[in-house]
Structure formats: C-alpha cells, structure tokens
Write a structure and sequence with these properties.
By secondary structure, this protein is of the alpha+beta class. It has a single domain, classed as NADH Oxidase, CATH 3.40.109. It has 8 helices and 8 strands, in the order E-E-H-H-E-H-H-H-E-E-E-H-E-H-E-H. Strands 3-4-8-7 form a 4-stranded antiparallel beta sheet. The chain has a two-stranded antiparallel ribbon with strand order 1-2. Strands 5-6 form a two-stranded antiparallel ribbon. Helix 2 packs across helix 6. Pfam families: Nitroreductase. This is Nitroreductase family protein. GO terms for molecular function: oxidoreductase activity. Keywords: Flavoprotein, FMN, Oxidoreductase.
Amino acid sequence: MENSESKLIDGYPYIAYHKQEIGEIEMIKKSGEFLRWMDERRTVRDFSDKPVPKQVIDHLILTASTAPSGAHKQPWTFCAVSDAVIKKQIREAAEKEEYESYNKRMPDEWLEALKPLGTDWHKPFLETAPWLIVAFKRNYEFGEDHKKINNYYVSESLGLACGFMLAAIHHAGLVTLTHTPSPMNFLSKVLQRPDNEKPFLLLPVGYPAEECFIPDIKRKALNEVAVYY
C-alpha cells in the first residue's frame, strides 16, 4: 500500500526525499569549512605500522559504496588486506613492475615531472601500512546460466567511489596514497579475484610515520581550474 512517503512510478518503488535547507550564510560557512578541511589532505608515503581497527575499514568501504554509479550497478569490489604475507607478496610484485616502469617504460619527461614528489620504484609502504585497500572494477556480472550481464560507466563509477573513500580516510584521521602500479594484473592473481574483476587502484591506509615529510607543493587557484558562464 502506498503512502505519502512512497509511491510506484512506472511500476518501480520510489520513496520521498527530504533534505533540510540551510540559509546562504550557513551554506557558505559549511562549504568553506569543508574546503579548508579537505585542503589539509595530502598524499603520504611514510606510514606507521600502528594498527587501525577493522571497523574503521568497514566504514571506509561502506562510505565509498554510497557513491553514484551507472544504472546503480555499484560495479566495485574493495579487497582489504592486513595479512603480512599477502602484503609482502603485493609489494614484491608491485616493485617488480615499478622497477620496469621507472627504468624502461616511462619517458624522461614523465620521470622529470615526478622528481619533486620523491617517488621511485621502492614501495615499502605496501608492507608498513596496516591495511591495503585494493579497488577492483566489475565490468560485468554473471546472471542465470552464467550469462554475462554488463555494467555501465564502470571506470567513472569506481573513480567516484574512490574519491569518496579518499575523503572518508582523511575524515577518519588517517592518510593514504593513490598507488597505480602498471600493469596491475598481479593484484588479481595474488588476491585470486574472478575474471569479471580488474584492478583499478591500490590504497595503503594508516597513520603517518612519526617522522613524515611531504613535498612543499601548491594546488591550483580557483581561476586556474574554474570557468563560469
């Protein structure tokens, strides 16, 4: 039975949506506070091995899963790794690929662009951080009789979800690094993922090391990133 808070539209169930409206002054204040908070977020490569409760990781993954997705297919799987043996396997495989990239695959222009960031093929954080969260994109699902059912806007959807997760990690008082070893197929093998899942992003999650330095770099100003019409 329908009520004022729910109804069928074209045969599908809908529920009423309400969001408390706030005044312009409060809106400007809240958006400015969030900007300043997010502007404190930084990529970190020096991690502490201090443990992080599993419940926090649960919350991070569920927050990421609130992101919009193509046709609401939610085409993602987040693999959370704390096992030391598996983390070591991931580090060894990642460093093998990264060594090839830094020494053979990446052009000089790219290597020059990376110099101010202090990154190279060594990836100790993959073992030091208490958790690794590996985001996999689900290109399709399996229906009846093992028939493939396509998902839509998979990369875009997972990119949004990972953005939500970055904000959630920062909000939880933790740090991370967006790591994309190329190619990343070794992650599917190490974590024994099915054929319909492909690795998208690897996020080490934890506290910054007691001695932690980050590059002194600046973000672009509003007039460099926005055009108003």
